[in-house]
Amino acid sequence: MKRDGGEAIGLFEPLLVSEGSPHRAELNDLALELATRSAAFRSSLPESISNSLAGLIRSMNCYYSNLIEGHDTHPIDIERALEDDYSADPKKRDLQLEAKAHISVQEWIDEDGMTDLPTSPNMIMETHRRFCDLLPPELLFVEYPTTGEKVPVIPGVFRDRDVEVGRHVAISPGAVPRFLERAHQVYSGTTHINSILSAAYAHLRVLWVHQFLDLN
Q1: Which runs of consecutive H residues, i.e. helices, occur in 45-191?
Q2: C-alpha triplet 1, 131, 205: angle, nearest 5°
Q3: Which residue has the higher pLDDT, 209 or 191?
Q4: Suppose 102 and one of 62, 71, 111, 134 were both cysteines; which one would form an S-S bond, judging by CB atoms 3.0 to 4.6 Å apart?
């Protein structure tokens, strides 16, 4: 059984900007304006251009997301990976496969592959499973820097060990389901305007939990 340190859900909150916040009205207006302009721009584009832009943005997101984690895969190498053109260098090839997996899962999300809200714990596990299933074996483990111990990453399974990210000590493994259920409870019951605002909140709060051993 995974150890639950009994961390209070209060560590996780607030999850939303409260209705009584003096900044709430301005945020509502900005969110609606952004959503309206985005929808108008998308509808104005021919489908061929819209699809091409979507692919370009997925590659861009992949590049910067991986770069933040220290995985520097050049955009040219990402494009080559999408054409199954891989480097002869094993490490570079692994990073290309990682990038291709990242884009593949993002495309699945964009095409409404999810059967529940993104904050659902089941969907979080399914997204992780799909991503890891496309990775080479060499990337499916983590190494603890203090001991050198290598631990396998199990696709779609919440971690059963403690993790640290820089100076941040994540909640105990047994507390992960409690915190994710709380996030899902909050974000699944939002109004339309809240659903727009909560997209960024949900992303940051779920990242804070670090529910998987590989910190995804």
Answers
A1: 47-68, 75-82, 90-110, 121-133, 176-188
A2: 65
A3: 209
A4: 62
**Residues 6 or more apart from 130 whose CB is under 8 A from it?**
104, 105, 108
Distance of alpha carbon 145 from alpha carbon 147, whole angstroms: 6
Q: Is 143 exposed, middle or buried (0-12, 13-18, 19+ CB in 10 A)?
A: exposed
C-alpha span between 193 and 48 (Å, rounded) = 30
Q: Which residues pair with 141 in a beta bridge?
A: 152
Tens digits of per-residue pLDDT, 67-118? 988 889 999 999 999 999 999 999 999 999 999 999 999 999 999 999 998 8
Residue positions counted in the chain:
216
For 102-135, letters b (16+ CB in 10 Å) and e give: bbbbbeeeeeeeeeeebbbbebbbbbbebbbebb
Please list the residues that pair with 164 across neighbouring strands: 169
pTM surpassing 0.85? yes
